[in-house]
Amino acid sequence: FFIYSQVKEFGALVFAATMNVRQVSSIIASYITYHHNITGLQTLGLAAVFGALFYKGYAGIEANLKAKAAETQTIADKINVASEGGAYKAADKNLSGPFLSRGR
Q1: Distance from first CA to last CA of the chain, Å, rounded?
Q2: Nearest-CA neighbor of 20 among 44, 55, 64?
Q3: Which of 29, 23, 11, 9 is nearest to 53 (CA)?
């Protein structure tokens, strides 16, 4: 239920980020619970892997925001064109010929 509702409400990228946080917390809890020593290379490896995963999620979120902004801008442009008369006014100005002229 949780997976379905989160993907439906927030999208796959948020779900992937949630799973990344869950994995990091699970690994850290395991180290603490079982008193394992963490070497420098393990820390570096964990940081590299999860850093890349978080970056991938962040880049996807940024791409979605840019796409939405571009879509919003396109809609705003269409509204401006429609409010100014758009293609209809341009077509009126280009009318010519004996049958299409409106006596201008």
Answers
A1: 68
A2: 55
A3: 23
